[in-house]
Design brief:
CATH class: Alpha Beta
Bound molecules: FE2/S2 (inorganic) cluster
Largest sheet: 6 strands, mixed
Pfam family, one: 2Fe-2S_thioredx
Organism: Marinithermofilum abyssi
Number of strands: 6
Strand order of the largest sheet: 2-1-3-4-5-6
Helix content: 25-40%
Order of helices and strands: EHHEEEHEEH
Protein name: (2Fe-2S) ferredoxin
Length: about 150
């Protein structure tokens, strides 16, 4: 596997719990969609063992963006692959996202404005991070905005 040119790495949990909940079908759907979109050279996938979030599986993790997805289905997997193809963020079932320093929990997913923050206590945490001048990740967290390379 040549890594040169790869832009995304998807970690596909195929631990025992995720497998019981359909991880193999999710894996096949994502890999099939990647082939369909001719993205094999820019999206690398790796089947993993347990990622420690069995209760929420099947789990998929997208790097380098640092987005963790819960309860993936084959359809959601295809949507994730398509979002990579379209160079847009996919946050429909995102549970956590890396903000440049730490992973933040997303309480309720994306709201109608395409902004996943929903008025929970972590807003203050997020605002503190952003006010600290660490705004580099903020635009990429919005559903409707393009990913930066
Ligand atoms: S088996 Fe997937 S998170 Fe544990």
């Amino acid at each position: 596997m040549k890594l040169e040119g790869v832009k995304n790495h998807l970690l596909l949990c195929n631990g025992a719990s995720c497998t019981r909940n359909g991880a193999q079908e999710v894996t096949e759907a994502i890999r099939q969609e990647i082939r369909q979109l001719s993205m094999q050279k820019v999206v690398h996938t790796t089947k993993t063992l347990c990622n420690g979030r069995c209760a929420f599986g099947p789990i998929v993790i997208q790097y380098p963006r640092g987005i963790w997805y819960d309860q993936m289905t084959p359809e959601r997997g295809r949507q994730l692959a398509q979002s990579i193809y379209q160079n847009i963020s996919y946050l429909e079932t995102a549970s956590h996202v890396y903000d440049g320093r730490i992973f933040l929990k997303l309480e309720q997913g994306v709201n109608v404005n395409g902004d996943y923050w929903t008025g929970n206590d972590e807003d203050a945490h997020r605002d503190k991070h952003l006010s600290d001048g660490d705004r580099t990740k903020e635009p990429s967290l919005r559903k409707s905005e393009k990913q930066s390379d």
